[in-house]
Amino acid sequence: MSRRNNVKQEDVKSAQPDQQDLPAEEVQLPSGPQDAEPPAVTVHVLNAHGVHELAAGSLLVICSDPGFKRAGIEHERLKVYRDGELTAGQIAQMRREPKLTLVEVG
Asked: Contact 87/37 with Cβ under 8 angstroms?
């Protein structure tokens, strides 16, 4: 017989605290619907040229060398692309480029 099978049921119960022994804040369940949708993500980038809104699915491309070309695009310092404007191949090329920083809004 293994040692694990020799543990008595009362020993197992005593090792686990009862909910009554815990402070009230540790016992309470979260209130509200559990399947509520997360809020929509919207980001605003503010710079000297105005406000750029980035909705969920947008891709912000920041170029450290404006005018630099990669993935068939001459990059501005900051450009917002909507979901579907770039191909997966373009995004892959841009991700590998150290002069570009991509920020995806989820």
From this structure: no
Question: Who contacts 55 (Cβ-Cβ below 8 Å, separation ≥6)?
Answer: 40, 41, 42, 82, 105
Instruction: Please provide the distance, in angstroms rounded to a whole number, between the alpha carbons at the two ends of the chain.
Output: 54
Angle 100-58-80 (CA atoms, 0-180°, nearest 5)?
55
Closest CA to 59 of 81, 91, 85, 87: 81
Measured at the alpha carbon of residue 28, what is the angle toward residues 25 and 29, in degrees to the nearest 5? 140
> What CA–CA distance (Å, rounded) separates 77 from 67?
8
Q: Which residues contact 105 (CB under 8 A, 6 or more apart)?
A: 41, 43, 54, 55, 56, 57, 58, 59, 60
- Is the CB of residue 96 less than 8 Å from the CB of residue 79? no
Average pLDDT by stretches of 10, the chain with 106 residues: 49 48 53 63 82 87 96 94 94 96 90
